[in-house]
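Re: [help] complex structure
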Amino acid sequence: MSTAPATIDGPLLTADGVPLKASLEKSLRRSKLRALLLVAPPLLFLIFLFVIPIGNMLTRSVDDKLINNVLPQTFEAFEAWDKESEPSEAMFEALYNDLKSAEKTDIGKASVRMNYALPGWRSLVKRTARKIKKMEPPYKEAFVKADDRWLDNTYWLSLGIMKDKRTLGYYWNAIDRTYDFDKNVIHQPDERKVYNLLWWRTILVSILVTIACLILAYPVAYLLATLPMRISNLLMICVLMPFWTSLLVRIVAWMIMLQQNGVVNDTLVAAGIISDDNRLAMMYNFNGTIIVMTQILLPFMILPIYSVMKTIPPSLMKAAQNLGATPTLAFIRVYMPQTIPGIGAGCILVFIVAIGYYITPELVGGKDGRLIGNMVAYHMQRSLNWGLAAAMGTILLGVILLFYWVYDKIIGIDNMKMG
Amino acid sequence: MALPIYATPGQRVWHYCYMAFCIFVLFFLVAPLIAVIPLSFTSTPFLNFTPEMLALDPDAFSVRWYKALFGICSGVDDSASTMCHNKWMTGAGRSLYYALCSTILATFLGTLAALGLSNQHMPAKRAIMALMISPLIVPLIITAAGMAFFFAKVNLSNTDAGIILAYTILGMPFVVITVTSTLVGFDRSLMRAGANLGGTPAYNFFKIQMPLIAPGMISGALFAFITAFDEIVIILFIGGPQQHTLPRQMWSGIRQEISPTILAAATILVLFSVLLLTTLELLRRRSERIRGITPH
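Output below.
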C-alpha cells in the first residue's frame, strides 16, 4: 500500500502516508531544534563569559577556605582547647608546623584575612613568620619571645570566627555587623560603622533621582506626545542627544556648569541673585551626584512614559470633558491612570540603573556623594578585601534582580524599547 | 497643544508656566553639552568662560586645545608642527578597534539569538530573553568585578581579546532587543514563499529576511558600538596599561590634569553622537517605510 487515501474513519494521513499528527509533531520538533540551535551559541557565550564569572565572584562572599588550608593543624588544636586556660604547647606546636609548611604568599593572604576578624593579627603573624625558621621547641616560649601578644587569649579566641570553610561574616560586615568570638552577630564598634550609612544613602539617592526624573519627565513626555509629529521629532533630539553622548563627556560638561567658577554660578552672580563670595557648592558633594545623575537618567524616564502616552487616544479627554469634567479633573481621572504602566516602567528602570552607579558619584560626588558601588570598587581595587566586595555586590545584585523580576512581570522584558 | 481662543486667563497662565517648565527641562538636558563647544576654543588653560570670551574678543579664542588633541606639537622650542606622541589619538584608535571588533561579534551573536527567540516554538523563551538582556541590568561594577577575577584565571586580563569579548557581552543585548522588535513585524509567509520557490534556508535568509531586519541589526550595532566606544568601568578593571582607550584617557584627564584638551575631545564626541543619532533616525524611518508602517 503505497498511498493510502484518507478515509473518514481512519487517521488523517499526509501525502507520503504518515499520520498527519506524527508529521506535524516531527515538523514542530524540527522547528524547536532549529530555534535552539540558533540561540545556543549566543547563550553559551553569555553563560561562559558573564553568568559563570559573576557567579564565581559571588561565591567569594562566603568563601573562607584559604585560611583553613593554611592553618589546618592550628584549627584542630584550637578545637581541643577549653577556651579559658592559657594556650597550650600543643597549640603552639600546631601553629609552628602550619606556618613552617605554608607558602609565604599564602601566609600573607591568611594574615590579611585574620586581620578582618581581629585587627593586629597581620603584624603578629608577619613578625612571627619572619622568625619561624630559627625557632626550636618548646614552641610556646619561642613564640612569646618573638611577640608577647601570643599570651593574649583574644587572638586565639578570634580563631573561632574563622574555623569554618564557609562564612557569612562578610555579609554581616557589609551591614555594619560582625561576629564576636562565639560567632554571635553583634554591632560593629561605632568608629567602624560605614556601610549602613552608604546603603541608606544609595537608596536615598536612587529614590530622589527617580522622583526628580519623574517630575521632570512627565510634562515633557506629555508635550512630546501631544505635539504634531514634525515638531516633537525635533524636540526628541534634545532628549536623545544626551543619551547618545559619552558618559564622561556629560560629566565634564556638568563640571563646567556647576563648579565654583562655573556657568551656573557665573550667571547667578551676574544676575545679582547671589553675591560673589556666596557661590553655591553644587559639585563634588551630594547635590552634584543628584543633579548629574538626574540629567543622565532622564531619557530613561521620558522614553517609556512617552511611548505609553502615544497610545492614549486624545478623544478620551474630550469625552470626559464633554461629560462635565473640568480639564484638570479629566486629566487626573482619565488620562493619568492610563499612563501608569509608563510611569512604572520608567521608575523601575531609573531606580535599577541608579542604584548600581559608580562612575558619576566617583567623579562628581566628592566625599558625601559616594554610593555603595564606589565601595565595591574600593574593596576590589584598593583594600583588596574581595570577600567584602563580593558580599556587597551580591546584596546589590539581589536588590536589582528583584526589581528586574518585577519589571519583567509588570511590563515584560520584550517590551523594552530604545530610541 | 495650542491654546484655544476661548481659554480663560487662568488657563493661559497655566499654559505658559507649563511651556516654560518643558523648555527648562529640555534646556537642562542639552545645555551642558552645548556649553562645552564654545569653551573648547578658549585660549586660556582654564575651564571657565573669561570676560574676554563673553565679549567675543577674537584673541580669547584659539584652536590650541584641538592641536594638542590631535597631537600637533607647536611650541617655542619646536618651530615645525610635527606629530608627537599623543595618548588621545592612540586612545581613540584603541577604542575604535575594540568597538568595531566587539560590534561585529555582538551583531552576529545577537542576531542569532533574536532569530531563535522570535521562533514561536522556542522553549523557555521568556527566561532566555531575560538572561540575554541581563548584561544591561546588572551594574557594570559587578560585571567588571566578576570578569576581572575570571579573566585573570583564564589569562585574558590585560589582553585585547579579553576586552573585545567583554564588550561583546555588553553590546549583545542591544542587538537582541532591536532585531527582536523588527522581527515582530516580519511576515513569515515571505520565507515560506521563498522556500516554495526553491530557495535553500540560507539563501532565503540572506535574500529575504536579512534585508528586512537590516535596520534593526544596524541600529543594534550602533548601540553596541557606542557602548563599547564609551566604556570605562570594565576597562579600568580588566585592562592593563597597553589597553589605554579614549575613555580611559578622559578618565585620567578628569581625575588628574584637567585641561581644555578634554573639552576639545568632548566637542568632537558630541558632534559624533549627533551624527549617530541622525543615522539612527534615518534608519528608523526607512524601516518603517519598508515594513509599511506609516507614522501617525
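Residues 20-59 of chain A form the longest helix (40 residues).
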